[in-house]
UniProtKB/TrEMBL annotation:
Record keyword Methyltransferase present: no
Keyword Protein biosynthesis on entry: no
Domain of life: Bacteria
Annotated protein name in UniProt: Glycosyl hydrolase-like 10 domain-containing protein
Record keywords: Signal
InterPro entries from the UniProt entry: Divisome_Glycosyl_Hydrolase, GH, GHL10
A Pfam family: GHL10
Length: 535
């Protein structure tokens, strides 16, 4: 979709969604643009960069400033085509249809003000892209060697970035699938080549986290992908031992590598060692790329709640606090697929136990469609709790379950994602702060406006995106910055004149733009481009 048409969709949605929060707005004194600095000058104001414009402005509607930072994510599942693709391709036209289907999904996410897609790229020892290390999945064509005229991962990356969406490669880490599946993978599979790195439990095969070479193997798969693709992050799912893991499955490895630790301590250290190894490798290739993981939703057994089922720490040997201390993850997305007393107490515990780590609760809208008998209100209550506790965002499992006309979850999201937000900054990555944009202009193009700006020649435009703000210099809205668009991929952006309806009483509008690098560290905002309305 071109920026032009997307801007109109964005403007239309913004006009529809702004709710009656003006009372709160008028009491707010928070600036949305953290790097904005008022320019003090005795020189007269520069002439407006666009002509005086006569615009029909309807009755003023309330506007809401967006100074929030949040990851608004969704897991987009490709295994079995659960979210995409819905059909296998046996013809060129089928392949076109697959691509169009993904574009429609991404359009919905962008228009709903999501900013992050966790895109499943590794299933059970097989991957969705061409690899020299692992076999291809069958979900796109029905066969591992069948012809496909596009690379699904490359296509997803390009289409996400066009829409201002970050894309993180979702890796299913240690599971390899059942016996039938691993046998179907052929001679190029790790199960076939290195059976000694694997173990079986209840007819399912796994790479053994206790085997150093098995951990390094997964790291090599990730490195190949990171070197080849322009991803924003790598996201590890099932980075754990299976539930009810028996001692006999790794007794020999424990005797060899345990070094005086208990079996539980050793297993926990293996998971942490893998994340440290793979994170170091990712950062060595692309320092900006974020690393995240999806642990179980309950961190530990709480003293007041001793019988809560399986937990990350005690049941599957995950220690996210150690991951944070060792710098292995930039954020985590705990799979909090519970409600009532199994949700909020554990949300509080995550925040208390690892206060410095950005935590993005993973919610379960799929439970509104299974035997759990949840409602959209359950999801909304959890979103409210997460926002109230200052979590770093929200993520949904999975994309299918937040589509329109599915038990109302999409309407809940619309109410909460009423305007765009900025991505949280990950300054610890140490990537250089972007320079300040210059020469921002707002040009009248008839039915829409076009914003354009310049960056220093030393700035590689592929190293970041841009956030565009508007503010009103006088009246009750003075001092507020309104985020019009986030993660703009180029130095040009179009938006509909309908956006001016939100500022009908303002005689003058000021626009600013700031650059954001690939770790979402923002630079100083530009000088204002001033738009004067006609009488």
């Amino acid at each position: 979709m071109q920026h032009h048409s997307r801007s109109f969709l964005f403007a239309h949605r913004l006009t529809q969604c702004f709710s009656l929060l003006i009372g709160v707005l008028l009491l707010s004194g928070v600036s949305a643009c953290s790097s904005r600095k008022k320019v003090v000058s005795t020189a007269p104001l520069p002439a407006p960069p666009t002509p005086r414009i006569e615009v029909e402005i309807p009755v003023e509607k309330p506007v809401i400033p967006s100074n929030a930072e949040a990851i608004r994510g969704v897991w987009l599942t490709t295994i079995y085509g659960l979210d995409w693709p819905s059909r296998r391709a046996v013809s060129t036209q089928d392949m076109v249809s697959q691509r169009k289907e993904l574009c429609r999904i991404l359009d919905r996410l962008a228009e709903s003000h999501f900013n992050t897609v966790f895109f499943q790229v590794r299933h059970r020892g097989d991957v969705i892209y061409p690899s020299k290390i692992e076999p291809r999945v069958t979900v796109f064509t029905g066969g591992r060697n069948n012809y496909l005229d596009y690379d699904p991962l490359q296509f997803a990356i390009e289409e996400c970035h066009k829409r201002g969406l970050s894309i993180h490669a979702w890796i299913v880490t240690f599971p390899l699938g059942n016996t039938s599946h691993v046998q179907s993978l052929g001679d190029n599979s790790v199960w076939k080549k290195h059976r000694d790195w694997c173990f079986t439990l209840h007819n399912d095969w796994y790479l053994n986290p206790g085997h150093p070479e098995a951990r390094s193997y997964i790291t090599s798969v990730v490195r190949e992908m990171v070197e080849r693709y322009d991803l924003d992050g790598v996201h590890f799912d099932y980075v754990r031992y299976p539930d009810k893991m028996r001692e006999k499955e790794d007794q020999n490895l424990y005797m060899r590598y345990g070094k005086g630790r208990s079996l539980g301590e050793w297993r926990t250290s293996n998971i942490s060692a893998f994340l440290k190894e793979v994170s170091t490798e990712v950062c060595s290739v692309k320092p900006h790329m974020l690393v995240s993981a999806a642990p179980l939703g309950k961190l530990r057994v709480l003293p007041s709640m001793p019988n809560v089922g399986w937990t990350a720490r005690e049941s599957v040997f995950q220690d996210p606090a150690a991951w944070y201390r060792e710098g292995s993850v930039d954020f985590i997305v705990p799979m909090m697929y519970y409600r009532d007393n199994l949700f909020e107490p554990f949300l509080v515990d995550w925040k208390a136990q690892i206060p410095g780590l950005p935590i993005v609760p993973g919610l379960a809208p799929y439970r509104t469609e299974d035997e759990s008998k949840w409602t959209a209100r359950d999801i909304e209550n959890q979103m409210n709790a997460s926002e109230r506790m200052g979590m770093a965002g929200i993520c949904f499992y999975r994309e299918l379950n937040i589509r329109p006309n599915r038990n109302g979850v999409d309407r809940v999201i619309t109410r909460h994602f009423i305007s765009p937000v900025r991505m949280p900054s990950f300054a610890k990555r140490g990537t250089p702060r972007p320079p300040r944009p210059s020469a921002l202009t707002i040009e009248d193009k008839g039915s829409y406006f076009e914003a354009s700006w310049s960056m220093p020649s030393s700035w590689d435009s592929s190293k970041g995106t841009y956030n565009l703000y508007v503010s009103v210099p006088e009246g009750n809205l003075a001092g507020e910055d309104f985020l019009l668009a986030a993660q703009i991929p180029t130095t040009r952006y179009t938006f509909s004149k309908e956006l001016l309806q939100q500022f009908s009483r303002a005689k003058t509008l000021e626009f600013r733009v700031e650059a954001s690098n690939r770790s979402y560290v923002r630079g100083e905002a530009s000088e204002a481009a001033i738009l004067v309305k006609g009488n």
